[in-house]
Write the structure tokens for this entry.
Amino acid sequence: MIRVAVLSPAAELGGAERSLLTLLKAGRGVLDATVLLPKEGPLCRHLDAGSIPWIVVPQPAEILNLTRDLRKVSLPACLKAPFSVLGYLRRLRERIQTLRPDVVYSNGIKFHFLSSLLPKRLNIPIVWHVRDHWSGRILGLAADRCPEMVVANSRATAAKLQERMRRTHRVMVVHNAVDCDEFTPEGATADDGLRDAGEYRVGLPGPLAEIKGQFLFLDAAQQVLRKFPGARFFIVGGFIYDTAKDRAYEGALRGAIAARGLSERVTVTGFQESMAPWYRFLDVVVNASTIPEGFGRTLLEAMACGRAVVGPASGGIPEFVRHEETGLLYGMGEKDALADSVIRLLRDEALRIRLGREGRIVAVREFSAARHAEAMAALFVRAKAQFESRKSFHPLP
């Protein structure tokens, strides 16, 4: 059993937090983990449900209110108010040291940067988990300096980060996982009512954000409706972080649905804590992201639920959505190609069933939560051993 102090920069339930929950629940036999949070939030309830201990180390507003737009986060922004930031780092270090962990595990970009200021005083190996594509130089510089090891959630994520690093050997790939007991083809659905004749259900799960491609999804929906006028479309999600920017985006999206005359065909569900019933409710599950996904977790969850999936042929998605084997791929940002893929699946029930069946098999065989937890625990042990070996090495004068 290896002791892990987990640094989670958010207490909401975004993709990184859901992936963390999957790891910690599956890893209870190999990980002794405590999660450190900047504030209380929905994540705390799920940690409690899994009997996973957590502690709040309150963050100053200068850090807590930094933009959630990952492309704009930078170390200079973290250091805008040096005194409050340094005071927070001192409190964080003291709290970590009271836990006496073997490894400190950072699960988000804010803590990646903040942890780069801790190593010499902390004297504990730090492991980062990078889940998004990064093209900026500053993360690569920090990755060379700070962590004992960097875990990437896909080969694509690893390659993008390594472009900006010198010590590329620090990066290890461990694919995301899915709880195949929670995400199954059998079980309750979001709506157990009878569907109308000719009604197909196509869904885009994920937070409401420009990069998630909700407007591209609307463009494709208009084309699909010309072939299948009884189809219904579901944008399954809401804004996770309550900011003015997020609220404005949701308003613009709802306005676009009305302006295109899609109000009777497109539903925005709002934030959903439980996603498995929604996957089972849908015939086709889509990822419409307009920038490369680090992994594309929602499609893996849909595959585990036996649903046919469609995603862009970019980022980490092709590493588990294999074209015409476990799903269909299209050119990222191409609304016509997205629409054609959905139309093909709605026309061909046998293809939908086959892709859903094969997707479930691959999810269980290659992306189980237990397998993921074992791989992560092994990397934590390795990081600890490397760190201790380097500390004990004293070259001859």
The mean pLDDT is 90.
